[in-house]
Amino acid sequence: MPTDPSSQTNINTGPIDTHQNNKFIFEEIQGDLFVDAPENSSLAHCVSADFKMGRGIATIFRQKYNGVKELSNQHKKTGQVATLQRDNRIGAGLDKLPLEFVIDTIRKVFDGCDMKMTMFYL
């Protein structure tokens, strides 16, 4: 006898929210991206246009990967992406965008791409 999916309890501690469209998979996971992200992952984070990176997770990115001058020398404007290649990891920067806007934009931009993107939150 089939079980009604709405009555099932999800005990999965993995992805909290997953959006899949074509080949693109976007998921949100509670965890520390510096600890829990696979080594072959690229990391991205929003930062201010001046790349000061003086508070919160931005400070950890700066301390761990350095490269503030390298990012600044790319002369990116708000809404563009500056990249910093470190091993197999990339840091990227934007500033003060609402999370819902960022997630919606990510889903629109990468729709149809054959990739998986994971957003970590604590």
The main sheet orders its strands as: 1-2-5
The coarse overall form would be globular
Structural class: alpha+beta
Q: Architecture of the domain at 41-122 in CATH?
A: 3-Layer(aba) Sandwich
Total helix count?
Answer: 4
Q: Which band does the percent of strand residues land in?
A: 15-25%
Question: What does this 3D model show about the protein?
Answer:
By secondary structure, this protein is of the alpha+beta class. The protein has a domain at 41-122: Leucine Aminopeptidase, subunit E, domain 1 (3-Layer(aba) Sandwich), CATH 3.40.220. Helices cover 25% and strands 20% of the residues. The protein is built from 4 helices and 5 strands, in the order ββαααββαβ. It has helices spanning 33-36, 56-65, 68-72, 99-110, and strands spanning 17-21, 24-30, 84-86, 89-91, 115-121. The strands form 2 sheets. It has a 3-stranded mixed β-sheet, covered by helices on one side. The model is unreliable at 1-16 and 89-94 (pLDDT under 50). One of its GO terms (biological process) is peptidyl-glutamate ADP-deribosylation.
